[in-house]
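FIELD: query
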Amino acid sequence: MTKDTCKDIVVGMMRAGLEATEAIASVLKPQELSLQQFNVLRILRGQKGKMATLQDVQSQMIHKMSNTTRIIDRLIEKGLVSRNTCSENRRKIDLCITPKGLELLATLDPVIAQAEGDFVAQFEPENIQALTLLFHQNRIV
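FIELD: result
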């Protein structure tokens, strides 16, 4: 594989990722929700009512960053996430999505699905299948 081919692949993936990010971010903007906040809410919903630690959330985030605590603080301020301090270990903090957070996600689910569908619709069906296979083989999804 040539250097130019590698460059084209990487640049193409970065552009596609940016376009997908912008498509989802534009849907979240009216709700005053960032992509990272949305990601945290989906991670906590996936816990199905069980508490999660900050480390649990950080390990599953798409955008790994050091400001996860601030993101969660904003979600708590909005009433979308609750935080409980463990009585035996005050450094351990448990997080849970609130009913308000679940309600917001339920409202957003069809809108996000539409935005994702619109983004993917620009690709030919055989390319979608090839991308899906490639991402799964390389554990990208």
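FIELD: remark
The longest strand covers residues 81-85.
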